[in-house]
Design a protein that fits this description.
Number of strands: 9
Strand content: 15-25%
Shape: globular
Order of helices and strands: HEEHHEHEHHEEHHHEHEEH
Helix content: 25-40%
Low-confidence stretches: 1-16, 212-218, 231-235
Mean pLDDT: 87
Radius of gyration: 19 Å
Largest sheet: 7 strands, mixed
Number of helices: 11
Structural class: alpha/beta
CATH architecture: 3-Layer(aba) Sandwich
Number of domains: 1
Strand order of the largest sheet: 5-4-3-6-7-9-8
Distance between the termini: 32 Å
Length: 328
């Protein structure tokens, strides 16, 4: 969807009726209603200014401005009362995160006569929930799904739990679990009697901190039109959020290989894949593990192209039985 660093849905709030490429059910397809956002979260107001297109906007290079915007969006559209993240942790672009949720909702709908299954009986596992807990927030608000969020970072889990505690309506349907073994993805998280209709993941994009900083610096140079831009992580982010040994490709391949051990406990496994060049290797491994069905969902947000790769080990008849057993 977006790289884990400069994940911006729009740097300039241009005069467009809709934001190009966002899902039809995405609440953020229109330009931001700053009057409404400020009404619901007054601390956003000082960050608003008129951009070169004559529209109200914020500086997406200002971490505090982005944080204030996120709070306003979550309060206004997702029923969140309190939300915050520790300093230096990833502040996600909500429109892009919402798109992932809506796309995989459509994936589930394909097995449900075209209707998105809703309610607490739909169980989702968020691999790498982070400190922001954003996917469970959006998924529960939009479709009332239940979530388990997993992460290898104790501070991230602690903060997500604080968000849940501050929002009782969300806390009833979401729990977070610490992954003690960073080499494991599903083992140690999925319990013996559990099943999941969906797993989601926004994997670490880069292979090293140096690569992460370099990628962000290049983007800033292009956006600002300057060569003397200092390396920085605009939206924050800790190592597990932004980079891992081998980058996105190695992480996703490891996830696929480990998913086979849970092939009858999950309906669809899914992950974002930002680099198109990684798809060939990913498809090859999916063939090796004998996935019964693989689908790739393209996503376009402005000039940014990405995709969700989804796979299942269930046969068509097993999927039909799953729907009858768990969704009815």
């Amino acid at each position: 969807m977006y790289t884990p660093l400069l994940r911006m849905d729009s740097l300039e709030n241009k005069k467009e009726p809709t934001k190009f490429g966002l899902h039809l059910r995405n609440k953020h397809r229109q330009s931001y209603d700053f009057e409404l956002l400020v009404k619901n979260h007054p601390p956003l107001k000082p960050f608003i200014s008129i951009n070169k297109y004559g529209n109200e906007s914020i500086s997406f290079f200002d971490n505090q401005a982005v944080l204030a915007l996120n709070k306003a969006l979550l309060i206004t559209y997702y029923g969140i009362k309190e939300w915050d993240i520790p300093k230096g942790y990833l502040c996600p672009p909500i429109p892009g995160r919402a798109d992932y949720i809506h796309q995989v909702a459509d994936l589930l709908a394909q097995s449900n006569n075209g209707k998105v299954p809703t309610g607490k009986n739909i169980h989702c596992l968020d691999i790498g929930v982070g400190a922001n807990c954003i996917y469970p927030i959006i998924g529960n608000s939009e479709y009332h799904w239940s979530f388990v969020g997993a992460d290898i970072n104790e501070t991230a889990i602690k903060n997500s739990n604080s968000i849940l505690k501050a929002n009782p309506n969300l806390n009833r349907f979401v729990s977070c679990r610490f992954q003690k073994d960073s080499s494991k993805i599903f083992a140690g998280i999925i319990e013996n009697q559990e099943y999941f209709d969906l797993t989601i993941c926004n994997p670490p994009f880069h292979a090293s901190e140096k690569e992460a900083l370099g990628g962000t610096t290049r983007k800033l140079r292009n956006l600002k039109g300057k060569q003397d831009v200092k390396p920085q992580l605009n939206f924050g982010g800790q190592a597990p959020e932004l980079w891992t040994d081998g980058g996105e490709r190695k992480f996703v391949i490891r996830m696929i290989k480990q998913s086979k051990a849970f092939k009858k406990k999950c309906f669809w496994f899914t992950t974002l894949v930002s680099k198109e060049a990684n798809l060939k290797a990913i498809y090859s491994v999916l063939k090796q593990v004998n996935a019964t069905d693989v689908t790739t969902i393209p996503m376009t947000h402005g000039n940014k192209k990405s995709r969700v790769v989804a796979w299942t080990f269930l046969t068509e008849s097993e999927r039909q039985n799953w729907v009858r057993k768990y969704w009815r």
